[in-house]
Amino acid sequence: MLNKYLDIKPEVAEALAAGKPVVALESTIISHGMPYPQNVETALAVEQIIRENGAVPATIAVIGGRLKAGLTPEEIEYFGKKGLDVAKASRRDLAVLCARGEDGATTVTTTMMIAHMAGIKVFATGGIGGVHRGAETTMDISADLEELAQTPVMVVCAGAKSILDLGLTLEYLETHGVPVIGYGTDKLPAFFTRDSEFGVDYRMDTAEEIAKAFKTQNEMGLRGGMLVANPIPVEYSMDSKVISAAIDQAVKEAEEQGVHGKETTPFLLARVTELTGGNSLESNIQLVFNNARLAAKISASYCEN
To answer: In this predicted model, what pLDDT tens digit does every residue of 68-104 receive, in sequence order?
Structure first.
């Protein structure tokens, strides 16, 4: 579907036209996920991993009011240097940013939207947003979940971010008919750790099986996306007790400081990084690399069948 506000990078457009595999990537991880220059180095490394695994990367962002499906290295550098000065763009922000000619870093939600506009089926990220702890009183539920319910893009992640209420996040996805696939696991990964007390809907052990399931869902005309939960590699998985203690402290500090809304997740992740001595940042980078590899393989298999 063409959109007059959308610019598709020539390399990405050529791959899509030829039926070749393409993997979308978000830009919030560049601007809000980690400091410069580590953010730029990581973004370029993720793109390279996708190429090495047989697909074309399409990092997605809003630049000067244009929706971008695929960034140049110079644009990634620009985003990395601008960092937190870039607006974090969810669904509610896209029209205003485009109307004003401003920049926006895409979240899971807006990356899915722009990927779908461009015709990209598979998207690799770190972890999705979800139902926040205490949502029964705050109603703080990520727009990522609603987007998964309505936009036919597969999201490959390391599970939901462990700062969330994982049980309620799964309940929400079930209510909205979003299949949660565990890659080689029966348990929902919790971002920094390989599993949790919660189970996934289906376990699948190959990229081919996952691609076939998603292609079938699309051919049946079923609404919405599919969530693939890919556990962080064993060597980078963190001690669940250490992470839980850091998250509990970060959540308490957020409440005390009145942090809420879209500022919550960046605050919590940054604070957890500080409390774990930076170990969680390295884990975060490695799980994104891991998800990129799997997403490229799924996209390649999807295009073959």
So the answer is: 999 999 999 999 999 999 999 999 999 999 999 999 9
SS (H, E, C) 101-133: CCCEEECHHHHHHHHHHHCCCEEECCCECCEEC
Are 24 and 120 in contact by the 8 Å Cβ rule? The answer is yes
Judge contact between 305 and 194, C-beta under 8 A.
no
81 is catalytic: no
Cα torsion 238, 227, 103, 22 to 10°: value is: 100
What's the pTM?
Answer: 0.91
- CA-CA distance, 134 to 281, in Å (whole number)? 25
d(CA 80, CA 300): 29
Contact of 188 with 160, CB cutoff 8 Å: yes
Is 197 a known active-site residue?
Answer: no
Distance between CA atoms of 102 and 59, rounded to whole angstroms? 18
Is 79 within 8 Å of 18 (Cβ atoms)?
no
- The mean pLDDT value for 40-46 works out to 97
Candidate list 68, 88, 161, 262, residue with the active-site label? 161
- Which one of 9, 26, 77, 187 is the catalytic residue? 26
With a CB cutoff of 8 Å and minimum separation 6, the contacts of 13 are none
Distances, alpha carbon 171 to alpha carbons 49, 91, 146, 168, 196, in Å: 33, 22, 13, 5, 15
